[in-house]
Write a structure and sequence with these properties.
This protein is an alpha+beta fold and 181 residues long. The chain is built from 8 helices and 5 strands.
Length: 181
């Protein structure tokens, strides 16, 4: 192997390693950093601090923006007669489905939920994080893994498992980059 080829290969590997490292430890905007720190502190006592931060990143960070509502998310429910109803919207930094928030809060009225719960999820980050904790606690089962709990937080099936892998990737990034030290 020629000396020039060796230098080229080594230089390429160093540059590739540098770009991967730079990509893994990204800088967050002031608003995003505030959300990550808040999620970590609210979830800390439940041993969910890093998990909530990762969920918040996955659900609400779009580039340098923070998105607190997604009208395209929905859940399907059936009444006693079998009629289908789609309850649209996920809200807050954790993008809790409105139907899930209704269940967690014991709210039976869709209009009441839109008026009270949806607006509170979008304007009160601590409330949104506490709802996420309630949801995580409600799906936690004895003997299941952390990934299984996170997948159940998002739903079921392959998409929920893929979601859990994304959350795990964010958790690993936070640990590797010492985001909360």
């Amino acid at each position: 192997m020629t000396q020039i080829l060796r230098i080229t290969i080594v230089t390429g590997l160093l540059l590739m390693n540098y770009s991967v490292s730079a990509e893994e430890c990204r800088d967050y905007t002031v608003e995003q950093r505030k959300i990550l720190d808040l999620a970590y502190s609210v979830g800390y006592d439940y041993d969910l601090g890093v998990t909530l931060a990762a969920i918040s990143k996955q659900e609400s960070f779009v580039g340098s923006y923070v998105i607190r509502d997604n009208p395209n998310d929905y859940s399907v429910h059936y009444d006693a007669e079998g009629r289908e109803t789609k309850i649209r919207g996920s809200y807050g930094i954790t993008h809790i489905l409105l139907s899930t928030a209704m269940w967690l809060e014991g709210e039976g009225s869709l209009w009441g939920a839109r008026g009270k719960i949806a607006s509170k999820l979008m304007t009160d980050d601590v409330y949104a994080l506490r709802m996420a904790i309630k949801k995580l606690e409600s799906v936690k089962r004895e003997g299941q893994t952390w990934r299984e709990m996170v997948a159940r937080y998002n739903g079921s099936g392959i998409m929920a498992r893929q979601y859990a892998e994304k959350i795990a990737s964010h958790v690993n990034e936070f640990k590797r980059c010492e985001v909360f030290n």
